C-alpha cells in the first residue's frame, strides 16, 4: 500500500468525512488520482470484508462502525511507522506546536531529521508555515542560539491554535480522547494538552456550570472546552495577553466568578493580569445562549433576526415566520454571535460542508443577506456561523411543510447539538411514518427508559440497552434513507396507531400539569412557548397576534407626537417616553435607564438612518407592552457613530418591552420603516396624526434593503 493511500485512509478515519476536492488540494494531485486511490482503498476494505467508502456529491466517508474502524486501524499499524509518511499538512501542524513550545529550543535541522525529508522539502514547509501564520499577523523568528520561535500577539496565537485544531483534527474525539484516535496530528495535539488538562476541564464544566443548562449545544460545549484548555496551557507556560482588554462593562455572575476561580485553583495558575480573567470570562459567556445580552446587543440582535427572517421569506418565497420557534433560535444565536465577533472568538462548525451541499438554497440566501443587509454586512460573519443559522431555517422549513400521519415512536440521540437534532427529527418525520417523541443530547440518554419510545436514532456510537437503535449521519444523506427503511422494516412490530383526534380530557390534564410546572404566577416566554407547543401537539393553532400584537393595533393616537422641539437627545428620550409614563406602561426608572444606557454604550439606539429606538431592560421599569413615536421639528444628534453617514435623528420610538418575544411584530414594522427612507422623509414632514397613521401603515411601498 502506497504512502498516500495510507494517508488518505487515516484522514478519513480521523475526520469522518471530506471531499474529493479537499483531498486533491491536500496532496497536490488531480481529483482523478484521488478517485483512483479510493478504488485502491476499496480493494483493501474488500480484502478485510469491510464495506466500501461512501461517495456522494463529491464527499467521501467510511461506512464503518466502531469495531470495523478498529480492524482497519489495526491493519494500518502493521504497515509502517507514522513518521515514514507524514503529509505536508501533518508536518505543518507538528512544526507549529514544536515552535510554540516555550520549554525547549527547536531548530529547523532537527525537524528535518525527525521528518526524514530533504532540505528543499523542509524549506518549502517553512515557506508554507510563514504563509499560514501571516493570516494571524504572526511571524517566525530564527536564531542560532534560541532556535525557531513564533512571535506576535498572544491572543492571535490562541486563535491560531484553536483554528489549527479545528481544521486538522476531529475536535469531538480530541475532547473525549478517543482511544482509536491516533496519528501524527492527534498525537501532537495530545502532547500539547497533556493527559489531564482536557478531562479535568470537561469534568469541571459538567459538574459546575454548563451541563446544568438543559439546552446546551454539544458542539458549543466542545468549543468552550477546547478554548478553555488552550487558555490553561498557555497561561501555565507563562504566555499572557500583551495588554488589558478594554471592556469596563463586562459583567459576570457569582457562579461564573466561582467557576473561573475553581479553574485557576485546580491548575494552580498564577495570574496577575485582569485581562486574562476578562478573556476567559467572555469566552465562556460568548457560548451561552441563555444569558441576558447587554442592552446594545439586545436591540442589534432583534433587528438582525427580524430582518433575516423577512429577507429569507422574500428570497425563498416561503413563510418562515409561521414557525414560532424560528425567531427564538435565530435571536439567541445572533446574541452570542455578536459577542463572539466583538472578542474575535471563532465558532467552528464540523457540518459546514454537509449543510452547504444539502441545503444550498438556504445557505446561499443567508449568505446574500449577510453581504447586503445594512447591519449584517459590517460584521465578519463566517461560513461556520451561517451554517449554524441554516440549520434553524432548514428545521423551520420542514416543520412548516410537514403534515403527515405518524406512527413510529422514536427518540433521537444527537451529539451535534439540539438544533441539528431537531433538523434530523423533522427530516425523518418528513420521509417516514415517524413520531419523534424526544431529541436528546448524549448526556441526557439516561432518561430514555422513562420515555414511551420503541426505537432510537443516534448520530454517534452509544449503547441504548434493550431499545433497538440505528446510527445515521446528523444531516440525512441518501445512504441514511436506505438504512432507515431497512431498520423500520426490521422493527415494524413496534408500529402504533396515533389518532390525531384531540382527547379533551387528556388535553385538559396536560394544560393543568403545564400550569403547575410554571407555578411562579408569571406569564413567561418559556410558559407561552410550552403552552403553544402543547396546542401544536394536539393539532390546534394559536393566533400569534394575540401574544404579539401589530404596531397599528398597539399604537394609540395620543402616543404619536409630531413636530416636537427638543434641545438634545436626553430631552428627546424624556418627551417620547411621556405617553407611556402617562398610560402606566413604564415607570420613571425606565426613563432614567434609557438615558443611562446611551451614556454607557453610546448612540446604539440609532438603529437606522434618522431613526432611534429608545428602550431599556424589562426589569428597569417596563410594566406592560407599549410603543410611542415622536417626530422632531429639528433633527437631533445622539452622538458620534460610524454606522451611518448621517445619524441626526428625526423620528424617535420608545419601546416598553416586557420580554424578548411579545413585541416581535412591532420590531418587524420598525425594520420595514428603516428600509424605506422615502417613508421616513414623508413622516418627518407630517403634522396631523391621521395623515401620519395613513403613511406609517401604508404597506404598499416596496422594502428593498437586502434585495
Give a short overview.
The protein has 707 residues and is α/β, with parallel strands linked by helices. Residues 700-707 have low confidence and may be disordered.
Question: Could you explain the architecture of this structure?
Answer:
The chain has 707 residues and is α/β, with parallel strands linked by helices. The chain folds into 6 domains: 3-80, Winged helix-like DNA-binding domain superfamily/Winged helix DNA-binding domain (Arc Repressor Mutant, subunit A), CATH 1.10.10.10; 89-245, no CATH class; 295-399, PTS-regulatory domain, PRD, CATH 1.10.1790; 402-494, Rossmann fold; 504-538, no CATH class; 551-696, Mannitol-specific EII, Chain A, CATH 3.40.930. It has 30 helices and 14 strands. The strands form 4 sheets. It has a 5-stranded mixed beta sheet with strand order 10-13-14-12-11. The chain has a 4-stranded parallel beta sheet with strand order 7-6-8-9, with helices on one face. The longest helix has 22 residues, at 295-316.
Strand order of the largest sheet: 10-13-14-12-11
Strand content: 5-15%
Count of separate DSSP helical elements: 30
Q: Kindly state the number of beta strands.
A: 14
Write down the overall geometry. globular
Number of domains: 6
Question: Sheet with the most strands?
Answer: 5 strands, mixed
Computed CA radius of gyration, to the nearest angstrom:
28 Å
Distance between the ends: 54 Å
Provide mean pLDDT, rounded: 83
Q: Would you tell me the structural class of the helices and strands?
A: alpha/beta
Secondary structure: helix percent:
40-55%
Poorly predicted residue ranges: 700-707
Amino acid at each position: 500500500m502506497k504512502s498516500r493511500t495510507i494517508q488518505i485512509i487515516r484522514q478519513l478515519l480521523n475526520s469522518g468525512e471530506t471531499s474529493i476536492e479537499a483531498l486533491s488540494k491536500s496532496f497536490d494531485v488531480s481529483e482523478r488520482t484521488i478517485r483512483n486511490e479510493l478504488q485502491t482503498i476499496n480493494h483493501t476494505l474488500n480484502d478485510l470484508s469491510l464495506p466500501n467508502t461512501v461517495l456522494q456529491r463529491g464527499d467521501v466517508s467510511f461506512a464503518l462502525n466502531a469495531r470495523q474502524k478498529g480492524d482497519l486501524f489495526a491493519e494500518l499499524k502493521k504497515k509502517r511507522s507514522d513518521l515514514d509518511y507524514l503529509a505536508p499538512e501533518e508536518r505543518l501542524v507538528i512544526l507549529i506546536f514544536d515552535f510554540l513550545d516555550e520549554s525547549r529550543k527547536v531548530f529547523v535541522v532537527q525537524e528535518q531529521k525527525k521528518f526524514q525529508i530533504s532540505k528543499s522539502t523542509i524549506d518549502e514547509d517553512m515557506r508554507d508555515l510563514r504563509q499560514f501564520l501571516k493570516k494571524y499577523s504572526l511571524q517566525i523568528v530564527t536564531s542560532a542560539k534560541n532556535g525557531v520561535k513564533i512571535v506576535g500577539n498572544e491572543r492571535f496565537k490562541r486563535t491560531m491554535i484553536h483554528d489549527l485544531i479545528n481544521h486538522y483534527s476531529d475536535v469531538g474525539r480530541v475532547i473525549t480522547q478517543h482511544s482509536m484516535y491516533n496519528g501524527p496530528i492527534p498525537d501532537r495535539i495530545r502532547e500539547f494538552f497533556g493527559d489531564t488538562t482536557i478531562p479535568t476541564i470537561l469534568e469541571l464544566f459538567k459538574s459546575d456550570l454548563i451541563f446544568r443548562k438543559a439546552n446546551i449545544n454539544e458542539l458549543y460545549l466542545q468549543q468552550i472546552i477546547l478554548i478553555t484548555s488552550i487558555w490553561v496551557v498557555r497561561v501555565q507556560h507563562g504566555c499572557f495577553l500583551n495588554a488589558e482588554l478594554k471592556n469596563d462593562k463586562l459583567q459576570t455572575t457569582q457562579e461564573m466568578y466561582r467557576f473561573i476561580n475553581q479553574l485557576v485553583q485546580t491548575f494552580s495558575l498564577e495570574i496577575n493580569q485582569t485581562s486574562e480573567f476578562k478573556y476567559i470570562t467572555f469566552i465562556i459567556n460568548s457560548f451561552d445562549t441563555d444569558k441576558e445580552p447587554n442592552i446594545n446587543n439586545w436591540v442589534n440582535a432583534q433587528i438582525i433576526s427580524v430582518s433575516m427572517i423577512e429577507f429569507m421569506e422574500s428570497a425563498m418565497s416561503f413563510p418562515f415566520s409561521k414557525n414560532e420557534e424560528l425567531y427564538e433560535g435565530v435571536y439567541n444565536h445572533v446574541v452570542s454571535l455578536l459577542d463572539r465577533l466583538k472578542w474575535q472568538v471563532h465558532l467552528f462548525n464540523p457540518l459546514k460542508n454537509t449543510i452547504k451541499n444539502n441545503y444550498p438554497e438556504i445557505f446561499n440566501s443567508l449568505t446574500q443577506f449577510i453581504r447586503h443587509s445594512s447591519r449584517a454586512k459590517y460584521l465578519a460573519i463566517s461560513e461556520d456561523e451561517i451554517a449554524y443559522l441554516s440549520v434553524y431555517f432548514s428545521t423551520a422549513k420542514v416543520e412548516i411543510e410537514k403534515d403527515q400521519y405518524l406512527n413510529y415512536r422514536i427518540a433521537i440521540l444527537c451529539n451535534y447539538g439540539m438544533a441539528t437534532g431537531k433538523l434530523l427529527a423533522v427530516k425523518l418525520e418528513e420521509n417516514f411514518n415517524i413520531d419523534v417523541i424526544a431529541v436528546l443530547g448524549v448526556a441526557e440518554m439516561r432518561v430514555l427508559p422513562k420515555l414511551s419510545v420503541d426505537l432510537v436514532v443516534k448520530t454517534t456510537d452509544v449503547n441504548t440497552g434493550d431499545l433497538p437503535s440505528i446510527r445515521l449521519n446528523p444531516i440525512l444523506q441518501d445512504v441514511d434513507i436506505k438504512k432507515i427503511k431497512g431498520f423500520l422494516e426490521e422493527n415494524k412490530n413496534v408500529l402504533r396507531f396515533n389518532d390525531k383526534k384531540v382527547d379533551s380530557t387528556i388535553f385538559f390534564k396536560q394544560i393543568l400539569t403545564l400550569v403547575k410546572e410554571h407555578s411562579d404566577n408569571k406569564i413567561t416566554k418559556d410558559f407561552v412557548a410550552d403552552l403553544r407547543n402543547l396546542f401544536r401537539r394536539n393539532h390546534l393553532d394559536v393566533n400569534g397576534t394575540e401574544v404579539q400584537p401589530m404596531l397599528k393595533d398597539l399604537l394609540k393616537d395620543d402616543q404619536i407626537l409630531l413636530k416636537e422641539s427638543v434641545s438634545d437627545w436626553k430631552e428627546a428620550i424624556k418627551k417620547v417616553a411621556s405617553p407611556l409614563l402617562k398610560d402606566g406602561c413604564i415607570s420613571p426608572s425606565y426613563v432614567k435607564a434609557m438615558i443611562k444606557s446611551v451614556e454607557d454604550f453610546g448612540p446604539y439606539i440609532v438603529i437606522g438612518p434618522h431613526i432611534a429606538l429608545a428602550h431599556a431592560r424589562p426589569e428597569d421599569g417596563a410594566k406592560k407592552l407599549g410603543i410611542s413615536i415622536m417626530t422632531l421639528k429639528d433633527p437631533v444628534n445622539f452622538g458620534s457613530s460610524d454606522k451611518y453617514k448621517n445619524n441626526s435623528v428625526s423620528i424617535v420610538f420608545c419601546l416598553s418591552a416586557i420580554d424578548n418575544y411579545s413585541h416581535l411584530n412591532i420590531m418587524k414594522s420598525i425594520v420595514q420603516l428603516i428600509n424605506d427612507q422615502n417613508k421616513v422623509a414623508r413622516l418627518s414632514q407630517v403634522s396631523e396624526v391621521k395623515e401620519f397613521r395613513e403613511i406609517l401603515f401604508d404597506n404598499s411601498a416596496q422594502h428593498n434593503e437586502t434585495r
